[in-house]
Write a structure and sequence with these properties.
Elements (H helix, E strand, L loop, with lengths): L1 E8 L3 E15 L4 E3 L5 E4 L6 E8 L4 E19 L7 E6 L8 E7 L6 E3 L5 E8 H4 E4 L4 E4 L3 E4 L7 E12 L4 E6 L12 E5 L5 E4 L2 E4 H9 L6 E8 L6 E8 L9 E11 L2 E10 L8 E2 L3 E5 L5 E4 L19 E10 L5 E12 L2 E11 L2 E9 L2 E2 L21 E4 L13 E8 L9 E8 L1 E2 L75 E10 L8 E5 L2 E4 L6 E8 L4 E3 L7 E5 L6 E6 L4 E5 L2 H11 L6 E11 L4 E11 L2
Parallel strand pairs: 1-10, 5-14, 7-12, 8-42, 16-20, 17-20, 24-27, 25-27, 31-33, 40-44, 41-44
Antiparallel strand pairs: 1-5, 2-3, 2-4, 2-6, 6-7, 6-8, 6-9, 10-13, 11-12, 14-15, 14-19, 15-16, 17-18, 19-20, 21-22, 21-26, 22-23, 22-24, 26-27, 28-29, 28-32, 29-30, 29-31, 32-33, 34-35, 35-38, 35-43, 36-37, 37-40, 38-39, 41-42, 43-44
Length: 655
């Protein structure tokens, strides 16, 4: 069996919806094996924070070295984020300015890690579509010049949460699992791609037809649903055998398309029982409006009869009410929708349902007190704070929310290591309407700056082990494995680890598999960052002053540098051209790495797990004739050393 997943690296888009027509795997002898029986629509913006299981199919045994992926832009819906939150619709075009139709991309796997398929074991191939590297937007002309950049690896390059969607075919309570026919993304077209067993545990939460359950009770309720009922689960893949274990499951009318019209988005204003949602996404009950982006504002009407639940709720008590829906809340709403002649959506949920989702707030720390911190709020779920009208949020004795002094209740979370000005991410729920301060109640607070101090407990929660918001097995074998997106490690305090977490203690914000075997293995004096630079058409033959197996010396004075030339970090954006010295770009020495060379305007991509192999191929390509057109990288930027240590690099070449 081969498990295929798809994810996306972030770009400046509110929607990027295209049709995935074909995904063929290529054997070493040239034989092609189709893995998608039917076209399916995908919005890559929805894959920034997670990976989606496309298929889990049985395919012929053999050695697979490449993939051929066909994407259709004919009826694409692409909305660019112009900073207003409303967005601008653009038309996809090729390098000559012609409208795009179908594009076929060839993705070559790392020749040291090709895909080996046999009957005895399960394998995985992970595809990563890079929005930032793939698109050049002209807002004046309202066009998007597309050079699709798709990389692939049999060694997953991130530890994002995995989502799988499909129709129930069987429930096996004795083995604590159920089987679905995978139907990915948000289409309601009945494309059943492959059967997949979804494993559950005692802590798996279920919401089924609006009712919360946990563990065996949830699985028993799932068994009462008719075959063909839609489900969507979040969880993780076990690396040893590629089995999927769910942490949360939605089923029946709790999943989009389950008998209600459904929209999801953030509340930007509330007046009485009328909510304003900005930039919502909509699924129609009849299969129309599949995950459509709604530009501008939508209206939601609620009432005392509206049923309210919360993400990861495991039982009917404590009960939730509409009073908990406030400005900033990320919500799923189920009801009856209508559209006026302009396309504006109004959804009547007075006898429907609302699910409170985990909301993310980000800003700079500007105050700290007993049990709370204060942020200069920048964004709520990536939307600019200027969109939100906080009227009515304050209690009778308090004041309305002030985004420049946004009070986050932290309870028992240890925030003592954060210094003033640090960019922080809070995950939790907005305070009930009309009750602020505090404005937000966090279950997790984490610095988005790497390193900084000896104790890396960037989040804690109640309980003995403090495994808070872990997106894998349990966050590890030790305690305080908080916000781990991998196994979490065998030691303690493996916090915000984007890899296995390591065997030692306090492996904090490590982007490698372990962060080391000792204690306090943090990357100090550096920040998570994204580098983006382009060279004006036709590009440059000498983007680097030197290339070696250990680093690329980026020429910051190159006269061909175009409009994009920045290193973006949570707390600042650095103009590369303003730097007094060249930036040294190196590959991360360990961990989940993926380096890609994109050729022929996105028609062919070579993928590498090793930076040295990537550099050798790149050196051969840059032969004095081939030009470099764009480079993007994700990793850690050290301002003191002017070094960028990359987990991912993508470079677009002209050849």
């Amino acid at each position: 069996m081969v498990m295929m997943t798809l994810t996306d690296a972030a770009g400046d888009f509110l929607a990027y919806k295209v049709n995935l027509v074909s995904l063929q795997l290529k054997k070493s002898d040239g034989t092609l094996v189709e893995t998608l029986p039917a076209t399916t629509a995908v919005d890559f913006v929805q894959l920034i924070d997670l990976s989606e299981i496309l298929s889990a199919r049985q395919i012929p045994a053999g050695e697979y070295v490449a993939a051929q992926v066909t994407v259709d832009y004919t009826n694409a819906s692409i909305m660019v984020d112009d900073g207003t939150g409303t967005g601008v619709a653009v038309m996809p075009v090729d390098s000559a300015g012609a409208a795009l139709g179908q594009l076929q991309m060839t993705v070559q796997l790392d020749n040291k890690n090709d895909l080996k398929v046999n009957a005895a074991t399960a394998s995985r191939i992970a595809f990563d579509f890079n929005l930032l590297a793939s698109n050049v937007v002209n807002l004046t002309a309202k066009t998007d010049t597309v050079s699709p950049t798709l990389a692939a690896s049999v060694v997953p390059v991130d530890t994002k949460q995995i989502r799988v969607r499909g129709d129930i075919s069987a429930v096996d309570a004795a083995n604590s699992d159920y089987t679905i026919n995978v139907d990915p993304f948000h289409d309601h077209d009945g494309n059943k791609l492959s059967p997949l067993v979804v494993h559950t545990t005692d802590t798996t939460t279920f919401e089924i037809n609006g009712q919360p359950f946990a563990g065996a009770a949830g699985l028993a309720q799932l068994a009462t649903l008719p075959a063909g009922t839609i489900t969507a689960a979040l969880g993780n893949l076990q690396t040893s055998d590629q089995t999927f274990t769910a942490t949360s499951v939605l089923a029946g009318s709790s999943a989009e398309g389950g008998g209600f019209d459904h929209i999801v988005g953030n509340v930007i204003a509330r007046t009485g029982n009328t909510l304003t949602i900005h930039g919502a996404r909509m699924d129609g009950r009849g299969g129309g409006d599949d995950d459509d982006f709604i530009a501008g504002n939508s209206t939601v009407n609620i009432a005392a009869a509206t049923l309210v639940t919360a993400a990861q709720q495991s039982s009917a008590t404590p009960a939730h009410t509409i009073s908990e829906i406030s400005v900033g809340s990320l919500i799923d709403v189920f009801g009856t929708a209508s559209k006026d002649s302009s396309g504006k959506v109004t959804l009547d949920a007075t006898f429907g349902r609302v699910r409170l989702d985990f909301t993310q707030v980000q800003g700079a720390l500007n105050g700290s007190g007993s049990g709370n911190i204060t942020l200069a709020l920048k964004t709520i779920d990536r939307q600019p704070v200027s969109l939100f009208n906080f009227a009515g949020t304050g209690s009778a004795g308090g004041v309305n929310t002030d985004p420049t002094k946004y009070v986050v209740a932290t309870g028992a979370l240890d925030v003592s290591q954060f210094s003033m000005g640090t960019a922080l991410l809070g995950i939790g729920f907005v305070s009930p309407f009309g009750t602020t301060p505090p404005d937000f109640r966090a279950v997790t607070v984490a610095s988005v700056v790497m390193g900084g101090g000896n104790n890396g407990n960037n989040c804690n929660s109640d309980g003995d082990n403090n495994n808070c918001m872990c997106n894998a097995n349990s966050g590890g074998s030790g305690s305080n494995n908080c916000m781990c997106n991998g196994d979490g490690g065998d030691g303690n305090n493996n916090c915000m680890c984007n890899g296995d977490g390591g065997d030692g203690n306090n492996n904090c914000m490590c982007n490698g598999n372990s962060g080391g075997s000792g204690n306090n293995n943090c990357v100090n004096s550096a920040a998570t960052a994204e580098l983006d630079i382009d060279w004006s058409n036709p590009g440059t033959t000498k983007p680097f002053k030197s290339l070696t197996a250990t680093g690329l010396d980026l020429d910051v004075t190159n006269s061909s540098i175009g409009g994009d030339h920045e290193i973006e970090m949570p707390s600042q954006t650095i103009d590369i051209k303003s730097l007094g010295a060249d930036v040294s770009i190196a590959g991360a020495g360990s961990g989940m790495t993926l380096f890609a060379i994109n050729r022929g305007n996105g028609r062919e991509t070579d993928s590498f797990g090793s930076f040295a192999d990537f550099e050798a191929a790149l050196s051969a390509d840059l032969n004095g004739t081939t030009t470099a057109q764009r480079l993007t990288a994700e990793g850690v930027y050290n301002t003191a050393g002017n070094t960028f240590t990359a987990q991912r690099i993508t470079i677009l070449l002209s050849n």
